[in-house]
Inverse folding.
């Protein structure tokens, strides 16, 4: 049976140099990140170059993605949240395109590594902290002190709120990473059933039709998950940014 | 000279053009605000609408709970190591982390939508 984990292995393509004894290498992960960025760039530049009043296909995709993210921000973080449109749009497009590229056979799924999703989640977390303290100063701590709580349980509540705040980047990153990892392993396992059963002769070939149908269905599901996880990541980013913009709520 | 005059005329027409353009922009802004104004503003800050499918929702809830417990356990462990009060830091912070996880889940499920709001 083919190793279902093999697809997530990091392979070195070229060594760029050494920093402090650590090798800085261009890996397959970096290659697919670059492909993702170039793909987004091509999509958006290609989509916006025509500037037609009646949009063509590419322009429609570019406009739809803009409208979608703008609507998401407006509905969760309000008008002030639009300041963070570039951040949210970049995160959404990067995750969406990386997820979809990862669905193509023989490609590498960038978002199936927790180091990538954790870096993205920490970026959001630190942005929330920096912007919250910049905008509200020490008033940002109001986020941890809910209104209308009796004074004798307030210390406990503050501890719980701080822990809940600190757990955000973990759940934010683990969700995307685990979804992509689990989905790709499931696909690989069912696909290997097809080849295993197919090798068993005539009955095996009939038997193999079942996992093959499942793989087709799973691919459709994974396409949904690829979009959904990008959306969930973006909307959680908006909710967290909303806390930085109005901590008193 | 002729060039100058032409430029002046150009300036005049340009400012007129800018005026009409800004008027058009203002009208467009008003129409956009009308189109998506009130309903969007009303739901600002609500997190209960954030999950479009049951699968993603279920997964989100479970990670929220686990993340709270993990953070609590890590802080407890670090305090134990740092202050040498083992096992009290772990006990207290694991329980606090569990509470934080439950708070996270309630918020993610939309039972209570933020700090300071009582569960409905």
């Amino acid at each position: 049976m083919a190793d279902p984990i093999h697809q997530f292995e990091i392979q070195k393509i070229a060594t760029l140099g050494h920093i402090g004894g650590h090798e800085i290498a261009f890996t397959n992960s970096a290659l697919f990140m670059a492909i993702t960025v170039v793909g987004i760039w091509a999509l958006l530049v290609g989509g916006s170059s025509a500037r037609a009043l009646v949009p063509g296909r590419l322009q429609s995709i570019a406009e739809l993605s803009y409208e979608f993210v703008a609507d998401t921000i407006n509905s969760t973080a309000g008008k002030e949240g639009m300041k963070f449109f570039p951040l949210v749009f970049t995160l959404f497009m990067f995750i969406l395109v990386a997820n979809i590229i990862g669905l193509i056979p023989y490609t590498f799924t960038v978002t199936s590594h927790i180091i990538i999703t954790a870096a993205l989640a920490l970026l959001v977390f630190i942005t929330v902290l920096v912007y919250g303290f910049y905008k509200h100063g020490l008033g940002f701590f109001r986020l941890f002190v809910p209104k209308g709580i009796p004074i004798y349980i307030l210390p406990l509540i503050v501890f719980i709120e701080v822990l809940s705040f600190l757990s955000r980047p973990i759940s934010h990153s683990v969700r995307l990473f685990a979804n992509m990892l689990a989905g790709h392993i499931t696909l690989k396992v069912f696909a290997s059933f097809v080849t295993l059963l197919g090798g068993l002769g005539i009955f095996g070939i009939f038997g193999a039709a079942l996992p093959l149908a499942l793989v087709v269905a799973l691919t459709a599901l994974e396409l949904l998950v690829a979009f959904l996880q990008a959306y969930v990541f973006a909307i959680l980013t908006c909710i967290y940014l909303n806390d930085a913009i109005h901590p008193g709520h | 000279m002729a060039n100058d005059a032409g430029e002046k005329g150009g300036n005049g027409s340009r400012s007129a053009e800018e005026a009409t353009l800004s008027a058009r922009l203002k009208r467009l802004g008003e129409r956009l605000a009308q189109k998506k104004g009130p309903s969007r503003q009303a739901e600002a800050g609500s997190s209960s609408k954030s999950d479009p499918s049951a699968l993603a929702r279920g997964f989100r809830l479970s990670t929220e709970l686990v993340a709270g417990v993990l953070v609590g356990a890590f802080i407890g462990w670090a305090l134990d190591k740092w202050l040498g009060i083992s096992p009290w830091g772990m006990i207290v912070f694991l329980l606090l982390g569990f509470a934080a996880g439950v708070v996270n889940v309630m918020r993610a499920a939309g039972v209570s939508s933020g700090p300071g709001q009582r569960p409905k």
Q: What stands out?
A: The CA atoms of residues 56 and 62 of chain B lie 10 Å apart. DSSP finds four helices and no strands in chain B. The helical segments of chain B are 2-36, 38-42, 54-83, 88-108.
